[in-house]
Amino acid sequence: MSEAPAAPPSASADRAGLPGGAASLLVRPPQPRAGWRLLPARVAAMCAVELQKLRHDRTELYTRAVQPALWLLIFGQTFTRIRAIPTGGIPYIDYLAPGIIAQSAMFIAIFYGIQIIWERDAGILNKLLVTPTPRSALITGKAFAAGLKSLVQAVVVIVIAAILGVALTWNPLKLLGVAVAVVLAAAFFSCLSMTIAGIVLSRDRLMGFGQAITMPLFFGSNALYPVSVMPGWLQAVSKVNPLSYQVDALRGLLLGTPAHLATDFAVLVVAALLGIAAASSLLGRLAR
Amino acid sequence: MTGDTVEAVSCTQLAYAFGETRAVDGLDLSVREGEVFGLLGPNGAGKTTAIRCITTLLPVPSGMVRVFGHDTARDRMAVRRLLGYVPQQLSADSGLTGRENVALFARVFDVARRERAARVAQALAAVGLTDAADRLAGTYSGGMVRRLELAQALVSAPRLLILDEPTIGLDPIARTGVWEHINAVRAATGMTVLVTTHYMDEADQYCDRVALMARGRIHSLGTPAELRQGLGERRRAAGTGATDTLPTLEDVFRDVAGSGLDDQSGDFRDVRSTRRTAKRVG
Q1: Among A22, A265, B155, B189, which residue's beta carbon has the most beta carbons within 10 A?
Q2: For residue A160, is it within any domain?
Q3: Phi, psi at residue B209, to the nearest 5°?
Q4: Based on the structure, what is the number of domains in chain A?
């Protein structure tokens, strides 16, 4: 650590300490961005941070790939042989793959609230809230950053599925649709997580909530089995579970099975918007 | 804006309560443009709460706080664009490099892409972190993290720099380093600095004016010399204490704290957060 010598500060010495004889840029405030350009700029800023972190430390990416790989490898291959679940004529591992992609993306997003609590404890959140960033823009930025992180994870799982011989589409337009579905769903689940964070305010409690809701969301969806084989009450759960709509869209796009794409994307967009609204309104509690 | 001179900060009967606890209770404060103003006081005196009201983190009714004439309740975004804020905790993101930490704040303050890299480099150079810029902030020493946070606050060219306990937990050399960089930047940019601190020697040495807070309001206000002199005169009049030596600012602090401290000061969260910072610095 190179500290400046402990001489009494004088104006000339101080200026010499700054580059180029003066802090030419550091005296000129930046031009504020126009209203509508603020939101995309904040989203880009949060996504940039997420990518930078991922570049410095990919451990999480690898460790989180283990579970989906096991699901596909063990559960997928076994149930393909048992043929216990009606899949509409495709191998079960193919049927399962979109569900596992959605699940692994959801797992990343559902614990995103822990990060915001950590940022609160570290003072990072307060610092961001003192920048010209409306709360809704901050949450939207975080939601899409979670979406980006989930997307990277989804790519890993898609590659694993392809290696295991799942017949996926390589149509770029359909893959773009997959990316949009993954990002929107992750935006919703991360906002759900940040909303709970805004209510419970502590990491331990949020961990508990995260654990408690993840499995019901997963099993109460069409990720593992079609809605038609579920008991009536579970079908009702599946109907209000955004994960089901995400899986339906992914299955339709990746495998070409019959899907309700318009409904699926409409539900995901509305869920993401509601999530952003809820999490933004509770962010103030974390700042206090 | 009122009068001829622009006030960097003006608080009028500022009050904020957490439930039953009135953390700030009728605070009147005026910080002049260009000065280094120190807000001192024992744990729980309301310094941090006051700072959080000024930075728009805590909502207060309009008319209570103005920053360069902008009301914090009505004109929140305009106020934020004028602020650089360093909170009490070590708030750099340890998973990013120094440069990325500063770049994030350049982005959220809308620094144009074409000058972003240059501005970030200047901010890092201003705090002497050019060589360490591409290391992860998690590898920095406490003093370096503080200087990095200073760079984060400076990158948007704020008119008002707000520092909450900037040197807490640092060793004396690092403390001096942090203050020298604050002073250098201030001399070059003319920005106003509002700082809270527990260290009376720092306040004495670096602040133009100080306010001693107790129980949520200002107890005494003036230049460090005025406050020391004031206590000296009071002591002479009362015939207590050593009359031949001028009291230090710490004596003034003890004088205030002695009358203002009670069991409520420095609640558990306060102490825990201070300890956490100290631990991360150490």
Answers
A1: B155
A2: yes
A3: -135, 150
A4: 1
